[in-house]
Amino acid sequence: MVEEKFVVTPWEVRGAVDYDRLIRDFGTQPISGPLAKKLEEILGDAAYLVRRRVFFSHRDLDLVLDDYSKGRGLFLYTGRGPSGPMHIGHIISFYFTKWLQDKFHTTVYIQITDDEKFLEEKRNLSYEDTQRWAVDNILEIAAVGFEPDRTFILQDTEFIGNAYPMVLKIARRVNYSLAKSVFGFTGETNIGFTFYPSYQILPSLLEKRRCLIPSAIDQDPYWRIQRDIAESMGYYKAAAVHSKFLPPLTGMQDKMSSSKPETAIYLSDDDKTVRNKVYRYAFSGGQATKEEHRKKGGDPDVDVPFQWLYMFFEPNDKRIEQIRAEYKSGRMLTGDLKDILIEKVTTFLSQHRQRREKARDLVHLYKKDGTLAREMWKRDFAKS
Ligand code: TYM
Prior knowledge:
The structure is a single chain. The protein has 384 residues and is of the alpha/beta class. The protein folds into two domains: 7-249, HUPs (Rossmann fold, 3-Layer(aba) Sandwich); 261-358, Tyrosyl-Transfer RNA Synthetase (Orthogonal Bundle), CATH 1.10.240.10. The protein is 52% helix and 11% strand. It has 19 helices and nine strands. The chain has a seven-stranded mixed sheet, with helices on both faces. The model is unreliable at 380-384 (pLDDT under 50). Bound molecules: ligand 1. The site of ligand 1 has 24 residues, from strand 5, helix 5 and strand 8.
């Protein structure tokens, strides 16, 4: 058997991820050619995320764009498991979803999976912990600036009364051997966790239009199951756009973790913390000494500050290529590169923080005290 060099599941990302291999293994499609161009046009200023293959893979994106151009519409769905403070990697899909909402003027459903994070035993979170993190994380998400009238934050433990009939209909269609093979459940897995995937599928069936789901590629296994059952239930197969993982500060071989502060920059980190983390922990592709660096140059491909600039923080193509060239040639030192990143991250976070303060009053609009939930239920669930 070939040795597994990396692992990507919804609960674990380990090793150096080979993204082309994932496209083959998961059976998704690369975002390339005319389709990539179309998505770039839609994204405008954010097109660099497609051009640089940060969002690199998809399912049925072509059909989504076709539905949009023919006036059939679509809706968007993404989510967050409130297991701790959110880091910069987590927020990328939310900004991406907001940019799509701005263009498509469509509904966004955001699932907060407090149940999932309680049931995921290795996290060892109490139920109360998950509730506190849900409040914290919802505020971070509200700071992204979704349109209040078209955005619904659905927190699993609150929404369950509306969702349960439909979740049951989903659950009855998924047998244990499929779930086991997709998610790797074992005899030790608690039964709540084996039921949970039926709830993560639910928001993709909230409307009888095509649902487009932006997320990192770790969430794709759910959509695979959704696509097996959706049509038999009278709904569309979910479409998805998948991103790569923003690498942890400490090096490319891992996933940023909410529970390991040195691997990530949290949305709540102040400027001083950002500076300390980048200086102390950011894995550098530079040489051991200044002299050696000037002579041999740095390696941007493994340098985390460069990768963070490339994947999110420096949208300007000319500027990023300039940085790459300077760093490779040895003219730019590791410290200079780190300073560029620190400036970008602190500016981004200060804007995010300002919006977070304003967003406090928006949260109840996103949650809508269950009103939208009831409307959805009347319109779609009750008759299915
Ligand atoms: P969670 O909380 O693990 O992750 C939230 C979102 O962040 C993405 N992500 C990353 N993106 C870029 N770089 C990283 N290093 C990185 N780490 C995580 C995840 O792919 C996700 O999009 N079960 C889900 C919650 C959920 C959900 C959804 C997510 C429910 N429904 C629909 C996306 C779409 C979870 O625990 O995500």
